[in-house]
């Protein structure tokens, strides 16, 4: 068949994924809204064939295979439950740790179980240089086994990019040679070409998604990795237009996070949205083997957010220090002030960011005061929307109200206000860098609603608020809860976000009842409407010319 870019293979995977998906997730009769095209330098891309609305389901993606991460605790290879020890129960056929006999034939375990059983090799802890790497060969072995037992899955997998040419000779390649290739060839005695195993590990390095396993009946999800061919096909952009959600059966559901116009690419982000250009580009270069040149990476201001900018310290300048060439291949272009051209080397900027990073790590996520201290220390060195300051605000937005000693009812007015402002500032950055439907937006809106509701209710109890103002504030909170639900409604109930969505649904019902009640309350429960518009008490000294003239006119 004439399919050099394996486009038909991917269409087949789409059909297969739809057939495997639970009916409530995707309308199986609905036509596909996108097509696959091969475009340099992206490779296979997914392109909208019609205008797509925010929130519309684009596709479901069934995993080709899942398995442990490169470094892992001792887990059950069938259900991914974390195990207490290496030898509580070992599979009667292959000797690997499992929960018990029930798991021997479950999940993807039979793929490696049969290979180990056939080889006669029994795993021993001392065979691994480091215990944390003992599962590194497991997912590659599962992939290889697919070639024998599930040719269609294998065809889909092997059609993916491995970047062997770019990986060869790197530290990563050497580690995989020891932990995967040598292990499988010498211990498990697979008779297979070394290069093919490297191709598999490459496909895994380039394309794997880290996913949360979901173990029914427990609250102990464990991070594993999986191959999702349709997700992996979407091009990377540092501001993207899709959102993916992992269902309990490990199916991925991908929706449009913002509207997508006909002819536009559907895009995803393979790196951390809330890091600055240099960090993102390095991560993509070393982890995914390409140099990102997207609109955000090309713009020294990162779309006007100044996410990596420093404040110029030259007297009276007030400019921002930005990279003079954010796309420089080795990320070493000098940085310069956008007003006075004062220069700082890229190495200095990197050192500063690293130093702050270390301080933040040391401060931890338990004590907001430690973070406030770091914030104060750097607030005049970094742009107010610098990623470290936004990161601190993100942490504070969650710590105030959630950590011991700072639960919501314990917070002072100033701390409540700080929580509110941290949420608002974070949302402002997210509107640009991570627009539309996202988990972080949903969670932040939820964090924002709580202190506002508390403040409004406190003012009502103390009769320091007018009825119209109180109702206005309650409706604002209702709006935030509504947006929380909108942003998180795609998340499975078993996840943290799904749980927050459920709580928000209950809260909004309660709030709507409260608003109805407040509407019927007599004015005597509130501050009189007129009184509030007077800006405090004016003393004799506060008299302005305006008020003086008015007084004279009244006489
Ligand atoms: Zn198990
Ligand atoms: Zn087994
Ligand atoms: Zn980029
Ligand atoms: Zn300057």
Structure description:
- This protein is α+β, with helices and mostly antiparallel strands and 555 residues long.
- The protein folds into four domains: 7-62 and 228-268, SET domain (Beta-clip-like, Beta Complex), CATH 2.170.270; 66-225, no CATH class; 284-413, no CATH class; 436-531, Methane Monooxygenase Hydroxylase, Chain G, domain 1.
- 45% of the residues lie in helices and 9% in strands.
- It contains 19 helices and 14 strands.
- Strands 11-12-13-14 form a four-stranded antiparallel beta sheet. Strands 3-9-8 form a three-stranded antiparallel beta sheet.
- A hairpin with an 8-residue loop joins strand 11 (310-311) and strand 12.
- It is globular.
- It starts with 6 loop residues before the first helix and ends with a helix.
- The structure holds zinc ion (ZN) (4 copies).
- The site of one zinc ion (ZN) has 7 residues, from loops.
- One zinc ion (ZN) binds at residues 312, 314, 317, 319, 337, 339-340, 342.
Oligomer description:
single chain
Q: How would a textbook summarize the main sheet?
A: 4 strands, antiparallel
Strand order of the largest sheet: 11-12-13-14
* pLDDT < 50 stretches: none
Rounded to an integer, what's the Rg over CA atoms? 28 Å
Distance between the termini: 97 Å
Strand tally: 14
The rough form would be described as globular
> What small molecules accompany the polymer chains?
zinc ion
Average pLDDT taken over every residue: 92
User: Helix segment count?
Assistant: 19
Organism: Cherax quadricarinatus (Australian red claw crayfish)
GO molecular function: N-methyltransferase activity; protein methyltransferase activity; S-adenosylmethionine-dependent methyltransferase activity
Protein name: SET domain-containing protein
Domain SET: 32-271
